[in-house]
Amino acid sequence: PTLRQGDLLVKVHYASLNPIDFHMRAGYGRQIMERKREAVWPLVLGRDGVGEVIERGTAAGVFKIGDRVAFALGPEDQGSGAEYCRVPNTAAALVPANVQARDAASLSYVALTTWRALVDVAGMAPEQYSGKRILVHAGAGGVGSFAIQLLKYWGATVITTCSHANIDKVKALGADLAIDYKAQRFEEIAGAVDGVLDTVGFEYEERSLSMIN
Q1: Do residues 9 and 86 lie in contact, with contact meaning Cβ atoms separated by under 8 Å?
Q2: How far apart are CA 129 and CA 153, in angstroms?
Q3: For the stretch 125-140, what's the b/e string if a residue is b when 16 or more beta carbons lie within 10 angstroms of its beta carbon?
Q4: pTM recorded for the entire structure
Q5: CA diameter of the chain
Q6: Which residues are within 8 A (CB) of 194 and not within 5 positions of it... i.e. 6 or more apart?
Q7: 168 burial type by CB count under 10 A (0-12 exposed, 13-18 middle, 19+ buried)
Q8: Most C-beta atoms within 10 A of its C-beta, which of 39, 54, 134, 142?
Q9: Helix (H) or strand (E) holding 173
Q10: pLDDT tens for residues 155-185?
């Protein structure tokens, strides 16, 4: 791809797929992207990944040729399913030396989604979660599993829903209480909470709102 000002050309080593990629494949967001006139069809899927910087556009920030970067792309960009990605320097970060590339490839999109929900949308600083009871729906999923760990790091008591098969997994991530959503009604088990991260939607939204202090 041709680089714009501020872009990096990244040779992709690992890429991950998220639910938004399923939805985009089915047409989600197409009308918005066509109005922007930035998307090129057919659109390559994959919102995040890890790779090596092999070329820099002008004003490409602190990144150097050869840097290993993780990135999360906007929906109008060609995705990480390609061999080479054009990545805005504002969408990239250096991968720490002690983090495996394939692990880093799975983090960017879910980490940004979690931060956006818990900090920007909820209007709470990380330190405000200390001592709070937070319910995380679908704790074994990508966003849920990241949110459990982040909330525990911030000092929250974390309750989560998952299938019976994933109870040990979410507890290992730090969940204080895991509720089998197939066998139990989560609102009856969890009781009152200070906040809910709902990654499921539908009837879960109304049921969850009734639990918030």
Answers
A1: yes
A2: 10
A3: eeebbeebbbbbbbbb
A4: 0.86
A5: 57
A6: 132, 133, 134, 212, 213
A7: exposed
A8: 134
A9: helix 167-173
A10: 999 999 999 999 999 999 999 999 999 999 9
- The tens digit of pLDDT for each residue in 51-110 reads 999 999 999 989 999 999 999 998 778 899 999 999 999 999 999 999 999 999 999 989
Please report the sign of the dihedral spanned by the C-alpha atoms of residue 113, residue 114, residue 115, residue 119. Answer: positive
Task: In whole angstroms, give the CA distance from residue 96 to residue 61.
Answer: 18
Q: Which DSSP string do the residues of 103-133 spell out, in sequence order?
A: HHTTTHHHHHHHHIIIIIITT--GGGGTT-E
Quick check: 52 and 10 in contact, CB under 8 A?
Answer: yes
Closest by CA to 153, choosing from 129, 183, 124, is 129
Asked whether the beta carbons of 7 and 86 are under 8 A apart, the reply is yes
Angle, vertex CA 109, rays to CA 45 and CA 76, nearest 5: 40
